[in-house]
Amino acid sequence: MSLSSHLEELRRKHENLSAQVETALQRPGTDDLEITALKKQKLRLKEEIHRLSSA
Fold first, then answer.
1. Number of helices and strands (H, E) in the chain?
2. Could you tell me the pTM of the whole model?
3. Which phi and psi angles does 35 have, rounded to 5°?
4. Nearest-5° angle of CA 48, CA 53, CA 55?
5. Strand ranges (E), 1-55
6. Contact (CB, 8 A) for 45 and 14
7. How far apart are CA 22 and CA 4, in angstroms?
8. Sign of CA dihedral 2, 51, 13, 37
9. DSSP 8-state class, residue 30
């Protein structure tokens, strides 16, 4: 897998997690721990994208 395709895959996952967070925030009764976990995954992906883009 080339670096550019890997970055694209990471960006797609990041966008997917953003959508999941938005959906979870709109559902009444969603567990805060679930939302926090999704946000942490999203942040890790963002950091990985930044790290690879800067290399």
1. 2, 0
2. 0.88
3. -65, -45
4. 100
5. none
6. yes
7. 27
8. positive
9. -
**Ramachandran quadrant class, 30 (left: phi over 0; alpha: psi -120 to 50; beta: rest):** beta
Taking the CA of residue 8 as centre, how many other CA atoms within 13 Å lie in the half-sphere pointing to its CB?
A: 5
User: How far is it, in rounded angstroms, from Cα 33 to Cα 39?
Assistant: 10
Tens-place pLDDT, residues 2-17? 999 999 999 999 999 9
Task: Determine the Cα–Cα distance for residues 36 and 10; give it in Å rounded to an integer.
Answer: 19
> CA–CA separation, 40 vs 37, rounded Å?
5
Structural tokens at position 45? 């992906």
Question: Using CA atoms, how far apart are residues 1 and 43, in angstroms rounded to an integer?
Answer: 23
